[in-house]
Every structure is written in C-alpha cells, then in structure tokens.
Specification:
By secondary structure, this protein is mostly helical. The chain is built from 6 helices and no strands. Helix 2 runs antiparallel to helix 3, helix 2 runs antiparallel to helix 5 and helix 3 crosses helix 4.
Length: 175
C-alpha cells in the first residue's frame, strides 16, 4: 500500500529535509510536525482590518437605508432603489471578506483594501462637496487612516512576504 501524496504518508516517511529534526528541533508551537508558526500579526494590520470592517458596516447601513427608502416609495425609481440596495449589500459582504482576510494576514487583501480606501476617500470628497460635513469628515478620516496603516512598513512587510524580489535588491546603487 502506497502512502505517497497523503498527509499521513508524509508524516510517516520523513524525507531528507526532515533528517535530524525531531520534536525538540522543531521549535515552539510546531509540536513536532515541522510546520512553522506564523509570525505575529502587526498591530497595523489589525487596525486596517478594523477600518475595513467599519467601512463594511457603513456600506451595509447605507444599503439598508436605501432599501427602506425604496420600500417607502421615496426612491427615484423603484428598480434603481432595489439595484442600489442589492449592490450595497453585496459590497458590504465583500468588504467584510477583505477585513477577515486582513485579520488572517492574507497577501491578496492588500490591493482590495487599498482600493477600498481610495473609493472611500472619493465618496468622502463627494459628501463634503454636498454639504454632508459630518459624514464626509468621518469618511475621509477612515480613508486616510486606512491608507496610513496599510502602507506602514509593518503592514507592507506582512502583506508582501514571499513575493519575488530582484536578486540585486541589497546592492548599493551608484550615486
């Protein structure tokens, strides 16, 4: 019976990379499995996840309010009110997925999170121009804080680990 290709078989048949690596050599938190413990999540990533979750909640509330207005007949057109509500709720779900991915420090979350901050900033500008200063100010603060924590060095390191780097990245450039 062959155990090749299964997780159980891999644990039963150590390869050359496992030579001499017993439970004591495996390190803390690995319990002899040879798996590495992920580095701790930077505080800036946690802050980015919280900001993303807040933005998801704000979009969900706006979508629900648009739905209520549609039900009451206060929407410009019923079909557009329904569409805005559905799109808003779907967007809120997607933003929540990005927030959850940030909490797990997933690399794929960096671009959608940065785009969220860009669009949040654009919405904030429109709100300020429309005289909604309290909503616009909150939106702008969220967008700027989101950009700051996502572009902070600890976040950048955590969300870009393992990406291919040029071989000469540590060489001094001629002046």
């Amino acid at each position: 019976m062959s155990t090749r290709g299964t997780a159980r078989g891999a644990a039963l048949a150590p390869g050359p990379a496992d030579a001499g690596a017993g439970p004591a050599a495996a390190g803390p938190g690995t319990a002899g499995t040879g798996a590495k413990t992920p580095p701790p999540r930077p505080l800036t990533i946690t802050a980015a996840a919280v900001i993303e979750a807040l933005e998801a909640a704000i979009v969900a509330v706006a979508a629900v309010l648009a739905g209520i207005d549609t039900i009451r007949g206060q929407s410009y057109q019923e079909s557009s009110g329904i569409a805005i509500t559905v799109i808003g709720l779907a967007t809120a779900v997607l933003l929540a997925v990005v927030a959850a991915g940030l909490l797990r420090t997933r690399r794929w979350t960096r671009t959608p999170a940065l785009l969220t901050q860009l669009f949040t900033g654009i919405v904030g500008i429109y709100l300020l121009q429309g005289g909604r200063y309290n909503w616009g100010a909150v939106t702008m603060v969220l967008a700027l804080a989101g950009f700051a924590v996502l572009l902070a060095p600890p976040s950048t390191r955590a969300l870009t680990v393992g990406l291919p780097q040029p071989a000469d990245r540590h060489r001094r450039r001629p002046s």
